[in-house]
Amino acid sequence: MAHNLKLNIWSLKFYDKTNKKDKTHLSVKEALDKLYISKDSVTDKDKNELFKSFIEQYVQSFDDKFINDKDVTKAFTYDDIKILLDSNVIYGSTKGGITGIQQDVFNINTKEDTDKKIFFDEVSTLPYFFYLWLPVDSDIAYLMSQSYTSVSINKVFLEHLVSIFNIHDIRIEKQSFVTEERMKYFYKNSFVYKVSVFKSRISRSARKKFNEAFMDEEKLKMNLTFSGFKTPVRSFFSKWSSIKSNLKDLNIESEDDYDIRVYYEDVNGRKASASMKNPKVILPSINIPNNVKENDFDFPNPEKILKFCNSELDVIKKEIKYNPLK
Questions:
Q1: Whole-number pLDDT of residue 46
Q2: Cα–Cα distance, 182 to 49 (Å, whole number)
Q3: Across residues 33-44, what is the average pLDDT?
Q4: Closest C-alpha among 55, 25, 274 to residue 141
Q5: Contact in structure between 220 and 207 (CB atoms under 8 Å)
Q6: Contact predicate 135/150, CB 8 Å
Q7: Does the pLDDT of residue 11 top 60, yes or no?
Q8: How do the domains of the chain map onto residue ranges?
Q9: Higher local confidence (pLDDT), 146 or 256
Q10: Residues with Cβ < 8 Å from 280, sequence gap 6 or more?
Q11: Closest Cα partner for 185 from 286, 68, 304, 321?
């Protein structure tokens, strides 16, 4: 099978949008309370009610339809949603894919025309799995979303989730997350294959030295890329200080004057990048093992991927030193 499964993880922080002068950070419990309070004046709700209220609003937001992204290129809808109350987890499945463009459907073994089409207002779907950890005794939530090697609905899925909280004056600050354990493993078992040097402010004299055609272009940006090599990580960084080019003619005197991005590839062909200022802070894609797939399909098996996400959450809890309140 050609389509592998990937897992994407984000940390989520919640902020009160009504207080514009003060960046008021909300705990997970306060965010869920705010979602509930907006439709009920009673504030003393237990966790079960808060989770059920969130799911109810999430389901109703679809209005039994598909939700488009802002560009109307992807669409999705919910399929099944469940709660692991003791674990503070909401999980389930969605279905979605490409929309907004007419597609002809062919048999891969022939070029003969068929009468099968997917019209611009239709969507070709794949099943996706999501896993949302909402620890009511913490300030940060974590979202896991499954995708495929070259296909995902992450953009429209995240846009929609943000919009639900936005209705209740809650802003979500999301950040891609990979456990330190995975970062270290990827770094240790990868090669550097490209380095990019970026500078957004270049002096007039430096622009002239490079090319007089750019002399009066005050907004000129420079992106210089070194590629065509593949060096083990340890070997590369041991040589970096001696092999980097002297860029003084471009008004670059030290590494602090410009942004450097280093690009990695591991032994399995996975790629990632990081800032040279923090070269070990890498966010590689997380491969989901083939044994998590449904038999004879590239789709995730619901029970197996739930187990996989539970295991990933255990690692996250250990890394952030999560200590649940009794």
A1: 86
A2: 36
A3: 67
A4: 25
A5: yes
A6: no
A7: yes
A8: 5-177+285-319, 183-275
A9: 146
A10: 183, 184, 187, 274
A11: 286
